[in-house]
Design a protein that fits this description.
2 helices; elongated; single chain
Length: about 140
Amino acid sequence: VGLPPHAFDAGERLPERASSRDEPPGPDLPHVKRRRAPDLSDIVPGKLPKRRKTKKMKHASSKYRGVSWHRRDRRWMARVWIKGKIRCLGNYTNEKKAALAIDDVLIKAYGPTADLDLNFPTPEERREAELDADS
């Protein structure tokens, strides 16, 4: 254990390591990060520690069926089940555009008179959503 002989001049001594049970054996290297033991001094027997709160994105979920936020691409993703298979309809910058795309595909697949659970069930709602999505 230690440094190679060419790392020091012939007259210098190798640095001595303190023998401690807390540190793992091996040289101290600046690029190696060592884990510290957790501090258990504040733990009370019988009481569970508090969980950290995770940050939730403001666009984590959508109010429209089949629309979800894609974290990596930072866009709205539209997916729909049609005849037992899932169809990915793409990513959209606007949540309403993704919901309208889902409704369009469902109407084309099952027809306008089918009993479907659409995001915008009436034609008036669809027109308003299209105008809102474009603006």
